[in-house]
């Protein structure tokens, strides 16, 4: 069931404070790096990685290195800091996607962190034939900036006031023919976890991890899941099924909701 946008409250103050966990998640990933190299390998197709609000390609460096080590042709977005849907951003992203698609002759996978996931889903809507797979990390799929704890930052960065402009709402849907995976955490302190749920279907799934929002791009369970999703052969998408030894890292996303916000 798709959460209704107006009912999704931002994360609690406690969850916001718990974002300091990101440092420990990063350290844990460095320790687990040799094991992460055992994740499924890619086939060399292009992968475009999009950063979150106020972040740039530096924030996705570890994720991109991980994917490159596994055989993917990985690209950053190359547009500096993500300051929201300012004039020219969507056009520049479409041009970048088109160039990657044309240069490789193959569909491109999109990985978007937080607001970057909103862009990824918008690109899939505009160019479904050029997109092989969409993976989002803590992205507000069923909400907007009002379902996050960074609404004021979004308004400042983008120059848009919530309630007076439609804002970046293309993250509602992905074309039926494009596989999509939403990776989220119920203890996310930036984006309300319910806002990251997408309706599940034949090519759409939600994958839960335990961790912070700030650490999503450097957290070992996330890095493994992203690599697994991107390693699937084109046209042969299957739902995420982690190895038995790793299943404890991925809670059942269909368990009853608690009062976590």
Overall shape: globular
- The overall average pLDDT, rounded, is 89
Low-pLDDT windows of residues: 1-5, 164-171
Name the strands of the widest sheet in spatial order: 2-1-3-4-5-6
- Counting DSSP H or I runs of 4 or more residues, the number of helices is 8
**Computed structural class:** alpha/beta
Major beta sheet, specifics?
6 strands, parallel
Distance between the termini: 18 Å
What is the number of E strands? 6
Instruction: Indicate the radius of gyration in whole angstroms.
Output: 17 Å
Query: What proportion of the residues form beta strands (DSSP E)?
Result: 5-15%
User: Helical content, roughly?
Assistant: 25-40%
Task: Give, in order, the helices and strands.
Answer: HHHEHEHEHEHEEH
Quaternary form: single chain
Give the key terms.
single chain, 261 residues, alpha/beta, globular
Summarize the structure.
29% of the residues lie in helices and 13% in strands. The chain contains 8 helices and 6 strands, in the order αααβαβαβαβαββα.
How would you describe this structure to a colleague?
The protein is built from eight helices and six strands; from the N terminus they run αααβαβαβαβαββα. Mean pLDDT is 89; it is low at 1-5 and 164-171. Helix content is 29%, strand content 13%. The protein is an alpha/beta fold and 261 residues long. It has a six-stranded parallel beta sheet with strand order 2-1-3-4-5-6, sandwiched between helices. The protein has helices at residues 13-17, 22-31, 33-36, 61-69, 89-104, 115-126, 151-158, 220-230; strands spanning 46-50, 73-76, 108-113, 131-137, 180-185, 204-209. Strand 1 (46-50), helix 4 (61-69) and strand 2 (73-76) form a beta-alpha-beta unit. The longest helix is centred in the middle third of the chain and has 16 residues, at 89-104.
């Amino acid at each position: 069931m798709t959460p209704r946008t107006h009912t999704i409250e931002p994360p609690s103050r406690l969850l916001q404070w718990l974002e300091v966990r990101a440092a420990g998640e990063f350290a844990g990933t460095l320790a687990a790096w040799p094991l992460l190299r055992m994740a499924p390998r890619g086939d060399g197709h292009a992968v475009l990685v999009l950063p979150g609000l106020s972040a740039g390609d530096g924030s996705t460096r570890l994720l991109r290195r991980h994917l490159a080590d596994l055989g993917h042709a990985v690209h950053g977005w190359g547009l500096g800091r993500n300051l929201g849907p300012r004039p020219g951003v969507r056009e520049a992203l479409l041009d970048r996607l088109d160039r990657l698609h044309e240069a490789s002759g193959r569909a491109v996978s999109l990985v978007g962190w937080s607001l970057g996931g909103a862009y990824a889903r918008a690109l899939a809507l505009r160019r479904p034939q050029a997109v092989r797979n969409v993976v989002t990390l803590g992205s507000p799929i069923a909400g907007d900036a009002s379902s996050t704890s960074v609404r004021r930052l979004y308004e400042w960065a983008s120059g848009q006031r919530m309630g007076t402009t439609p804002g970046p709402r293309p993250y509602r849907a992905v074309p039926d023919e494009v596989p999509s995976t939403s990776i989220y955490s119920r203890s996310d302190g930036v984006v309300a976890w319910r806002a990251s749920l997408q309706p599940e279907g034949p090519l759409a799934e939600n994958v839960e991890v335990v961790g912070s929002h700030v650490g999503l791009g450097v957290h070992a369970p996330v890095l493994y899941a992203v690599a697994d999703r991107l390693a699937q052969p084109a046209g042969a998408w299957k739902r995420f099924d982690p190895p038995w030894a790793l299943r404890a890292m991925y809670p059942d996303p269909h368990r009853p909701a608690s009062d976590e916000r």
